[in-house]
Amino acid sequence: MKKKVADVIKKANKIAISSHVRPDADSIGSGLALYLMLKQLGKKVAYYNTDMAPFPLTKLPSYEVIKIGQIYPRPFDIIILVEGGADDRTGLDNIEEYYTINIDHHTTSAYDSNLNWVDPAVSAAGELVYQLGLELGVTFTRDIGFNLYAAISSDTGSFRYSNTTHTSLKIASELVKECDFLPYEVSDLLFYSNHLEKVRMIERVLSTLELKLDNKISIIYFKRKFLSTLSLKDIETEDIISFARSIIGVEVTLFFKEIDDDFYRISIRSRGGISSQKVAKAFKGGGHDHAAGFFYRGNIEEAKKEITDVIKAQL
Ligand SMILES: [Mn+2]
Question: Ligand 1 centroid vs 266 CA: distance in angstroms?
Fold first, then answer.
């Protein structure tokens, strides 16, 4: 599939790139690395996202090339979707008017692009874009390396999560060797660049912590009013979830983000034998074995009870 993707790219001239909605460091870092690679090959490249990336991803090298808006009706030979596994993930209108390539590592990928390069065995889309770069014979510059390292290091939680493999470490090592950046520069940007307001927000969210099912489930709750009382536009949730899931004995962490009255986006993180994806699927969501999510409409206490029951059935 990698060869096929490389062949289509070689033949194309005008290429658009897009990351999924609510973009994360993997989809943005991989997308930017891909953008720089295609530029290097002399392609006409444009990068359109429908959502702004949250801070500090806006500080990734070359972030400024990303335009916010729709691709249609601009003419492109192909669109490359970075983790755009399903229609609602892309946020793009009239996408069926184009030839699309999806580069993804989610098992829940819809395989509805013209070419689907989906490999659930890799830790991050960044690993696939790295391999694509080798296949295309590009020079790995500092900015390409920095972005790919950021992609992989973010999706593996700085090489701490269960998806970290020998290959992810090896690619990271190659990038550090070939490209002129140091791992701590990426870590400083991704993991040690908190605004005071964010730490205040973590404080509030953690104050909602509750445990269920003999302390096997930890639940935290982000209320909409936290945003209005702090001068924050949106939140990056991964490190708050990390706290709640670090508790000894906790196997599943649920993060409730209140979107509207009785409407929540719920992120699940699990370890051990419990599959986050299975839990999410019971509520029409998706994701990976140890990280997944879904939307819930209804009363939050009802939601907690229903989800706890689904998890109980898996134990
Ligand atoms: Mn990813």
Answer: 18
